[in-house]
Amino acid sequence: MSQLTVVTDFDGTLMEQDVGDLLMKTAGVVNEAAAKEAYRSFEAGEIGSMEVARTSYSFLANRKSVVDEVIRQVSPREGAVEFLEFCHRNGVPVTVLSDGMEYYIKQIIHQMNLKVDQVISNPIYYTEEGGYRLGFQNPNEACQWCGCCKAEVVRNIKRQGSRVLYIGDGTSDYYGSGFADWIFARARLARYLDEAEEVYFPFTTFHDVLNVLEPNLDQFRSGEALGKRKVPNTFCRFND
Length: 240
Description:
The chain has helices at residues 10-14, 19-26, 33-43, 49-56, 64-71, 80-89, 102-112, 150-159, 172-177, 187-195, 206-213, 217-222; strands at 3-8, 94-101, 118-122, 124-126, 132-134, 162-168, 182-185, 201-202. By secondary structure, it is of the alpha/beta class. Strand 7 (182-185), helix 10 and strand 8 form a beta-alpha-beta unit.
């Protein structure tokens, strides 16, 4: 039987809050002229998330205390802990895939003891020496639109022989979910999939995800579960 892997977004998906957005508001980055212009250009489709992150996250270089304060304010989405424990018990690996900041994601996962197998996100973090690293998780030479190339991550998981169940809510999830086998979607991702006439499972809490996955786990593992996505990814470019 083939392996099943869960790939879940972090901000606004695994977490109730969009931690990145909350951080930018709390730190006042949203009021910076350069950040405002980057957000405007992103919404207009003129730039991708890599350029937004390069601009906005540069303002956090000396703001670790603000980031740590935001971390203390957030909480997992309802049912997320139970969902992760179910996956852990049943040998279903979970990858947290985010276009956000590695530092706050790993700190939150550690502090809340969330059972995930790997985190793939933008290497933006504070070093032990007191420095600041502003980097990106994008090995795709054909496309540097996103900070974290979610599409390549999902493609790589599938190349390793696993089926992918993708859970997301935002614009960066358009790309990753475009190569998944099944999609659970809410918010902006769900609206996009509706417009694209794509098949997906709607969810509000992770109890909704569990209600589909738990009784049908064997069918998801074998690839026989209903609700497979059908619309080809039209966004992403690759050299291969």
